[in-house]
Amino acid sequence: MRPVRTEHVQQALPLEDGTKHTRGWGGKRRGAGRPPKTYRSSEPHTTRTRFSKTTAVHVTMRVVGAIGNLRRREAYHAIRQAMHVVNARTDFRIVQISLEDDHVHAIVEADNDTALSRGIQAFQISAAQRINRALSKRGLPRRRGQVFSDRYHSRLITSPTQARHTLNYVLNNWRRHHQDQDIERMFWDVDYYSSGTTFTGWKELTGSTYELPEGFQPLPVARPHTWLLDKGWMKAGGELSIYAVPGAARTRRARAAA
């Protein structure tokens, strides 16, 4: 005969004044959970939107503070090599990209939500290995471990207007962060730390690509497969201006005319 299983009862903990704590410890409450490692909160662990056909997505990936500035030669070439690896995939491709101080903006295409997740994972692993290797060549102890801090943030692109705004946001993001005002870059027309150097949709270039300096190796983006990123975005206002500032009310004029 089996013994009767008794039910375990959680005992209330006594407080300092002798009374018992009657409120449960579990459940959602303010201040619960793992604290953020940096001043930014982690990307919420919410269920990502699922999709089952080739879709354009705007992805943002942040790096840990120990990595330092991504807008330098060794980080640029590490990410460039990682892009070659992931763009060899048939279900995922990076169409446009820009490197900022502590994060990466990318416009990608994926066949489905699983391909998106695996493609981003492949890119982050490949880029992390190469960035760690590049940092180790500075004469510092060999670096291992985490490079990208949070879960990536993704937003599906579903309309020509959204596609055009996203292209402008990614390719001209350096102007939003006032990177174009640095002494070393104040004579740049496009951001050399982005794929804007090979983008053919600039209004000022009338369909041609930007003239690249001798020896410069552009970021190897893939040709878009979706109508939105190929031609659809043009339906929402035509070509982009090199001097547009994302989020600004008006477009800056060319400094060459000043």
Query: Using only CA atoms, what is the Rg?
Result: 24 Å
The share of residues in extended strands comes to: 5-15%
**Assembly classification:** single chain
Using the 3D structure, state the CATH architecture. Answer: 2-Layer Sandwich
Q: Based on DSSP secondary structure assignment, what is the total number of beta strands?
A: 4
Q: Average pLDDT value?
A: 82
CATH fold title: Alpha-Beta Plaits
Q: SSE order, as H and E?
A: EHEEHEHHH
CATH class: Alpha Beta
The major sheet is characterized as: 4 strands, antiparallel
Helix-strand category: alpha+beta
Please name the fourth-level CATH homologous superfamily.
Answer: Transposase IS200-like
Proportion of helical residues: 10-25%
The helix count comes to 5
Which regions are unreliable across 5 or more consecutive residues at pLDDT < 50?
A: 249-258
- Domains counted in the coordinates: how many? 1
N-to-C CA distance: 95 Å
Large-scale geometry: globular
As laid out across the biggest beta sheet, the strand order is 2-3-1-4
Give me some keywords for this one.
11% strand, 4 strands, 4-stranded antiparallel β-sheet, disordered C terminus, 5 helices, Alpha-Beta Plaits, globular, 258 residues, alpha+beta
